[in-house]
């Protein structure tokens, strides 16, 4: 990373006394000005204090306390991963797909599981936007995350007590025995698992993420995708998992393709984000399902493996 | 309704502009949507996803038939920025269709100068009134003084 030139620092200081502090995290004066504008508008503490925190690379969302996610404002706290724009993007597209094809009178409502929920942003946005009846289950290992999901849920949908169609569970989906047994079939499993490989963590990851966001929610490779194949595939009709690199997609698609049973019933697709990086692996069954998944995932991504 | 002012020396109609009766802001109609291309600027290539915590929420909207480009980064929410970009775009398109003139802008400018004028008028009136009062008081005091002096002179 190039050093900040003293010229830039002086220019920033002339514009606002706190601006040079932001330069350390933002790198350019324009970006720092944008952030300062947001801080002036939204920070709960003094602007100077907020800028000092930012100069120590504390993420902006922890300083301000919230992160917009779709039309919602999600509360963010230390020890819980901040929702990313990539997640926001695929969640909105998934919601558009469901709203465009599922009738509002689905018998009993659709059942959605969100694993590695973090702030609970994905099911919360779905709850606020889906036009059909739906039951949500958010699962996370971390007690901080579970507490935050409850807080966000109560903050956003607190009218008349906590909603009955939203379950929150603190479980370890990888190691818990006996594993979680959902009652009946799940319609959609969504998950944003930790997917940064340990060797990439040192080189690729931004400083503020490295210093302040929980490693539990960041570092991982194939274990959650293995868990998907072993545990969730037999219990669900479709899934959407966020990925960090093509290796994780190849792992899923290869396993499905080589398995004689799975390859007959599952379609697997890949979705790119608007920065043209592979971002999601998704899959659905095309027979014996309640919903028309082919229509839901029509504009979602490209199907890479199609069952016969 | 426009109020009409008539002055005695010439018959000139001065339309008054009211804050709540400005020409409306142009609306972004649904049929403009297919003519526009939307792009989200996340700032270059490199790693993404959980590795980077980008706060950049810039939205760029391009209207293909006219080639107008509008950018928006007012808020942290991309949803809100998209709405604001559409409002800006509607304004730009109306201006383009009207040879670079926006009626609302002109009215706002007139309103501004009108407010300024009325403010100046009010302050002028106020000063005139105060000056008059001061003058009267001065004169009254002078009269009082004269009377006192007269009384003293008559006593002696």
Automatic annotation (TrEMBL), chain A:
Pfam families on file: MTS
Top-level taxon in the UniProt lineage: Eukaryota
Domain Methyltransferase small: start-end pairs: 111-205
Keyword list, A-Z: Methyltransferase, S-adenosyl-L-methionine, Transferase
InterPro entries given in the database record: HemK-like, N5-glutamine_MTase, SAM-dependent_MTases_sf, Small_mtfrase_dom
EC primary class: transferase
SUPFAM superfamilies: S-adenosyl-L-methionine-dependent methyltransferases
EC number: 2.1.1.297
GO biological process, one term: methylation
Reactions the enzyme catalyzes: L-glutaminyl-[peptide chain release factor] + S-adenosyl-L-methionine = N(5)-methyl-L-glutaminyl-[peptide chain release factor] + S-adenosyl-L-homocysteine + H(+)
Identification of the protein by name: peptide chain release factor N(5)-glutamine methyltransferase
TrEMBL record, chain B:
Compartments in which it is found: Mitochondrion
UniProtKB keywords: Mitochondrion, Transit peptide
Keyword presence, Transit peptide: yes
Domain Prokaryotic-type class I peptide chain release factors residue range list: 40-129
Cellular-component GO terms for this entry: mitochondrion
Superkingdom classification of source: Eukaryota
GO BP term (any one): mitochondrial translation
GO MF, one annotated term: translation release factor activity
SUPFAM superfamilies listed in its UniProt record: Release factor
Family: Belongs to the prokaryotic/mitochondrial release factor family.
Name of the protein in question: Prokaryotic-type class I peptide chain release factors domain-containing protein
Provenance organism: Kazachstania africana (strain ATCC 22294 / BCRC 22015 / CBS 2517 / CECT 1963 / NBRC 1671 / NRRL Y-8276)
